[in-house]
Amino acid sequence: MDRAYEDRIICNCNKVRYSDIERALREGNNLREIEENFRRVQEITKASTGCGGCHDKVLEVISEILNP
Ligand code: FES
Prior knowledge:
- By secondary structure, the protein is mainly alpha-helical.
- Helix content is 57%, strand content 7%.
- It has a two-stranded antiparallel ribbon with strand order 1-2.
- A hairpin with a 4-residue loop joins β1 and β2.
- The mean pLDDT is 92.
- FE2/S2 (inorganic) cluster binds next to loops.
């Protein structure tokens, strides 16, 4: 995957990048449910813990990473 794509900010409030979400998912020990993964990503990266405006974007990124 190209670097600029991985470096783009997904959550503006907490400056969380695509690559941070990817890393958090790896630490999540292969959780199955998308919601579990979402909560794990929130805990680790703080993505989607501010205004919540990135919620759908974060979910999209998680499913993109889990189902390439
Ligand atoms: S942009 Fe992610 S919580 Fe506001």
